[in-house]
Design brief:
Layout (H helix, E strand, L loop, with lengths): L9 H4 L6 E5 L4 H12 L3 E6 L2 H12 L5 E5 L8 H12 L4 E4 L15 H29 L2 E6 L12 H21 L4 E8 L5 H9 L3 H6 L14 H8 L10 E4 L7
Parallel strand pairs: 1-2, 1-4, 2-3, 4-5, 5-6, 6-7
Helix pairs in contact: 2-9, 4-5, 5-6
């Protein structure tokens, strides 16, 4: 068996100097933390989202680190726009090396008996359909460039649903399977596809459930072995690992970051 003459150090393997990373839902929460974290290890970053003003704030933070950055306003759930988004990014940035599919929604809580088609469609279009077809468009670019990394943000709910959160859980379970399928099919092109499954994280989307069910926070914390809700920055290390050469032999995996919630 042949080995490389020189293995990178751990520090070297985590660097993304000169790489271009695209982060959807990049204006706040997990997406913003990820975009800034990837820039910190050298990446030039494209943030995609619906609110241009919010994206530009993140762009300025990234540029202050000495990296290139681009804001692209787009709704990932509208698949007819996605090929144009990818074309625009490659024209402006010259390449794509990493895609972080972070954009997601959970617009309302509903039992399956009361579920309306509109809620189903809005959740699936962004959380699953948009993710798959944006990944497809980016994978075509990565294939031509010799490979890269796609990171899908799923959820611990994709393994175990919460009360009245069935539609969201189904969409996120679909992301876990889509990750496996894409990883298997695209490995031959040097494209690695992995997923990160956060538990409850303090974000606008994540905390919105407490407004609807105030009692749920105490119930949740009683089931989290680490005894607290996570912060977006606590996902960044996993994101950097999966985006970088440190994870060069990792594909098709889902990394759970949930404070131990799935253990209970």
């Amino acid at each position: 068996m042949e080995y490389p003459e020189r293995l990178e150090s751990v520090t070297e393997s985590l660097r993304l100097d000169g790489r271009v990373a695209v982060v959807t839902g990049g204006s706040r929460g997990i997406g913003k933390a990820t975009a800034l974290g990837l820039a910190e290890v050298g990446a030039n970053v494209v943030v995609v989202g619906r609110n241009l003003d919010s994206l530009e704030v993140v762009v300025q933070e990234i540029r202050s680190m000495g990296r290139e950055a681009l804001a692209v306003p787009a709704h990932v759930g509208k698949t007819e726009h996605l090929s144009g988004v990818v074309d625009h990014i490659t024209k402006e940035m010259g390449r794509i090396d990493v895609l972080v599919n972070n954009a997601g929604t959970n617009p309302a809580m509903s039992s399956m008996l009361d579920l309306e088609e509109r809620l189903w469609d809005s959740t699936m279009n962004l959380n699953l359909k948009g993710l798959v077809f944006l990944s497809q468009a980016v994978a075509r670019v990565l294939k031509e460039g010799g490979g890269g990394s796609i990171i899908n943000v799923t959820s611990a709910d994709g393994f175990r649903h919460e009360v009245d959160g069935g539609t969201y859980a189904i969409s996120k379970a679909g992301v876990i399977m889509a990750t496996k399928v894409m990883a298997q099919e695209w490995a031959r092109y040097g494209i690695r596809v992995n997923a990160v499954a956060p538990g409850h994280i303090h974000t606008r989307l994540g905390d919105s459930v407490f407004a609807v069910r105030p009692e749920y926070e105490d119930q949740l914390l009683a089931r989290v072995p680490l005894g607290r809700i996570g912060e977006p920055r606590e996902l960044v290390g996993t994101m950097v690992y999966l985006a970088s050469g440190a994870s060069s032999y990792t594909t098709g995996a889902t990394f759970v970051v949930d404070g131990g919630w799935l253990l209970t």
